[in-house]
Design a protein that fits this description.
This protein is of the alpha+beta class. Among the domains are: 79 residues, no CATH class; 104 residues, Tetrahydropterin Synthase, Chain A. It is built from eight helices and eight strands. A three-stranded antiparallel beta sheet has the order 3-2-5, with helices on one face. Helix 4 crosses helix 6. The longest helix is centred in the last third of the chain and has 54 residues.
Amino acid sequence: MFNYKEEGVDSHGMKKIELNVNKIIIHTIIGLVLLTILFRSFGTIGAGERGVRTRFGAVIGNPIDSGLYFKLPFIERIIRIDIKTQKEQVNASAASKDLQIVNSSVALNYSLNPLKVGNLYKEIGVNYRERIIDPAIQESFKASTARFTAEELITRREDVKNDIKLHLSGRLEKLGIIVEDFSIVNFDFSKSFNDAIEAKVTAEQNALAAKNKLSQVEYEAKQSIEKAKGEAEAIRIQSIALQNNPQILQLEAIRKWDGKMPQVTGEAIPFINIIK
């Protein structure tokens, strides 16, 4: 123990020091509390986000835009919700109109309606993907797939995609989830169906090849017929000409004569009646 008198400090001075120390401690604590309150009273909402204000757990007011906000510390809480375009890809399975099992991977591009994020949080919470979007994709895929045969799912893929997108829009947009795009990544069928499709395609290709070959044969036959008709017509015209003008034969013989007289003995009629 110190002897205050020996150190030159009386009890009154010591009490004064203790009071000053206590004041400093109290002021420090108050300053820290005020600083904490100040920091907990302000915050920022980032670009592509909206803030949902809750007071004692209940949603109040409109969604907060991007920028600086003020809230009552320890009483209010701001929940940041992303409203940028997001992607959800899931595997889905269903039966086609002709009862073929179809497995597919599908992808949904979506965003949240900035004006409805408060209601979405109040009714669904932040896990809206698992509770709303994924089940809606599965149900819409099943409903649309059942309207098409397995073959049509392949040949009318764009129609199938648009049908699913329309069904999803009707379910999600009333909840504040905007369907921006939907795509079918792939279709996968059973091995037996794939084998049947391959056999059908092969048969169609063979039939097309046979049809093309038949068309070629028919074309060649028609060409031959037309050629024969042309030759027959030429002969007919030539025959009529000969009948009407016998001198044509003599002119033809003169055209083909090589200038040599035939070697004959005795009385013979010249092969060309020149005088005539």
